[in-house]
Design brief:
This protein is mainly α and about 450 residues long. It has helices spanning about 20-25, 30-35, 70, 80-85, 100-130, 150-160, 165-175, 195-205, 220-230, 260-280, 290-305, 310-320, 330-340, 350-355, 375-385, 410-425; strands at about 40-45, 55, 140-145, 185-190, 210-215, 235, 250-255, 255-260, 395, 400-405.
Length: about 450
């Protein structure tokens, strides 16, 4: 049993039995010795035998009677000691999976791929900017790009000053998947043309087109001679095409275009036009076929160079055909004498007028057997739709045009007026003159026309 006056759980082994009264009179031990702070209570754990050390509510003691608070109390240290860590954790070893060669290789490959992608992306951006930037060409220039590989084309363009980065040019061709699509030919490049525009020009074969102009009224022989003189074309022409089968016009061809193909294209164009004009002709024409339409149009083409006169000249010929009168067209005399050469080189003589040929309409009836030239669209349309007149004659007016008349008497007056004008201007007189009244096979619509 615990002595009276002691706190429960206080060790009794420190006091003798006779000292009970004295102990009661002693003051309580200081808190520093008991470890009890003011307001705290002791908790006793009585048991048989030796007593347990006292425990504080919420303040456990260690084996030496020192509180946990006192253990955690900061002990003053030097600045250097304060910077040193109290506890150093032991580094953990990486797992064997991380150190596996495949993992290491995969990480390296992924890093390389990312860096490569970034490098390629940057190169593409920079390359695209240079590919579309203005080029070095200072002025517009025509360059003949030869047939060959991409390297030869790039060298040619660089040598001509069109590009200054042949490697970038070839890279652009590869990027556009156009290595085998670059077309040879003659190209016209604008000033400061970009690499992109150069490649597009070669891909689309936008070659220089050379105009080939064939005037109306030339013979087939004269047209062939013009084509042979044109150095933009290539090849030869095997034979002269039939008269009236070539359509005069302005055509455009790239350099080196074959002359035989030019002839075929002109023939196809003429055939299409004749078929179309024939389908829209006047229904009362005394013509039996498209071929006769071309013959009549060739006479119209050679008689006048003025567009406004073509339909009236055609009307004169149509009216004479309807009246069974000879056409008596001077150009038929010339063609019957010299053929496709086109010109006599001198004024028509009376002997030449009377000289029989297959084409001389002063001698033969009706139309000549074939065209005497290659008529153009306007003459074909005039022959298919002539003016509605009663005129049977026309004569030159001395200014490049003609005067038309319905009777022979009017024609004679017009001829006299032309003679006076020729004498006034001291021009050589026309060899053709009609002094007597005409018969159906004598009157010439183009009397007194100088050739």
């Amino acid at each position: 049993m615990q002595p009276a006056g002691l706190s429960p759980g206080f060790p009794t082994g420190l006091y003798s039995r006779g000292d009970t009264a004295d102990r009661a009179a002693l003051p309580a031990p200081p808190a520093a010795l008991t470890g009890i702070l003011p307001g705290e209570k002791e908790i006793a754990f009585p048991a048989a035998g030796d007593p347990y050390p006292p425990l504080l509510m919420g303040r456990p003691l260690d084996g030496y009677g020192v509180t946990v608070m006192e253990q955690n109390r900061i002990t003053p240290r030097s600045p250097r000691a304060a910077l040193e860590p109290e506890h150093v954790s032991i580094p953990t070893r990486r797992s064997k999976r991380v150190r596996h060669p495949l993992v290491i290789f995969g990480n390296a490959f992924l890093t390389f791929f990312v860096l490569l992608a970034l490098g390629i992306g940057g190169a593409l951006i920079v390359g695209k900017q240079h590919f579309e930037a203005p080029g070095p060409l200072a002025t517009e220039k025509i360059v003949n790009v030869p047939r060959g590989g991409m390297r030869e084309i790039a060298d040619t363009l660089q040598r001509e000053g069109v590009i200054d980065q042949p490697l970038l040019f070839m890279a652009g061709v590869f990027a556009l998947k156009a290595r085998g699509d670059l077309k040879a030919g003659e190209y016209q490049f604008a000033r400061h043309v970009s690499l992109h525009q150069v490649v597009e020009t070669l891909l689309e074969a936008r070659v220089v087109q050379h105009p080939v102009t064939i005037p109306e009224g030339l013979t087939s022989e004269q047209i062939v001679a013009r084509l042979l003189e044109n150095d933009a074309l290539s090849g030869n022409i095997k034979e002269i095409p039939p008269e009236g089968t070539l359509l005069p016009d302005t055509y455009h061809f790239p350099r080196g275009f074959p002359r035989e193909r030019v002839i075929k294209l002109m023939q196809q164009a003429e055939q299409r036009l004749v078929n179309d004009v024939w389908a829209h002709r006047n229904p009362d024409l005394p013509l039996k076929s498209p071929e006769e339409l071309v013959i009549l149009a060739s006479l119209v083409e050679k008689e006048t160079a003025k567009p406004e006169e073509r339909s009236r000249v055609a009307s004169v010929f149509i009216n004479r055909l309807k009246h069974k009168m000879r056409l008596q067209s001077d150009p038929t005399i010339i063609y019957g004498l010299v053929g496709g050469k086109g010109t006599l080189g001198h004024q028509i003589k009376r002997s030449e007028i009377e000289q029989p040929t297959a084409y001389n309409t002063y001698v033969i009836d009706g139309l000549p057997p074939a065209p005497i030239a290659n008529p153009g669209r306007a003459s074909l349309e005039a022959a298919a739709k002539p003016a509605r007149t009663k005129e049977l004659y026309f004569v030159a007016d001395g200014t490049g045009g003609h005067i038309f008349s319905e009777t022979y008497e009017q024609q004679q007056k017009n001829v006299a007026r032309l003679r006076a004008l020729e004498q006034q201007q001291k021009l050589p007189a026309s060899p053709v003159a009609v002094d007597a009244a005409p018969t159906s096979d004598q009157a010439a619509p183009g009397d007194a026309q100088p050739h």
